[in-house]
User: Which sequence fits this backbone?
């Protein structure tokens, strides 16, 4: 039986504190997938980006919500992995700003936080995030969640 990354990752999603909240698809037609990792903890952001780059994904990091908006509008990643608890402009505020911008409104945005899912949902007026992954789990859980969003196929 041929190896399938999607099917090999399913056990990580079933046993984890992560899930997709929307049916948005990744609008990427080229390889590798472009991922922006946003976290005010530089070591954590760099480590996660390095791990995701092994998949292979083209990863960049932003260390604040404001920097995430700036980088996302200039680089337009396929996926944003967004921490919530950051000083100044937090992940919720940055995500709402990205959703209002025509250049970035289509991007898959995953809440990646130590907060539990109920706490994140309590602060949302509507689902600005496409998914949730709690920090402290194997990075394979995040990879599985990213893969669960699939990719849009170019017609024709």
Assistant:
């Amino acid at each position: 039986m041929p190896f399938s990354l999607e099917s090999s990752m399913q056990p990580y999603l079933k046993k984890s504190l992560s899930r997709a909240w929307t049916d948005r698809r990744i609008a990427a037609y080229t390889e590798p997938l472009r991922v922006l990792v946003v976290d005010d903890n530089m070591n954590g952001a760099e480590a996660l980006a390095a791990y995701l780059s092994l998949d292979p994904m083209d990863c960049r990091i932003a260390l604040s919500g404001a920097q995430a908006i700036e980088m996302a509008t200039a680089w337009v990643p396929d996926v944003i992995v967004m921490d919530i608890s950051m000083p100044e402009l937090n992940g919720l505020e940055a995500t709402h700003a990205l959703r209002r911008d025509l250049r970035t409104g289509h991007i898959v945005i995953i809440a990646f936080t130590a907060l539990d899912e109920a706490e994140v949902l309590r602060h949302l007026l509507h689902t600005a995030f496409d998914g949730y992954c709690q920090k402290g789990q194997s990075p394979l859980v995040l990879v599985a969640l990213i893969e669960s969003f699939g990719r849009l196929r170019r017609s024709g």
About this structure: Strands lie at 18-20, 33-38, 57-62, 79-82, 108-113, 131-134. The chain has one domain: 30-148. The two ends are 30 Å apart (CA to CA).
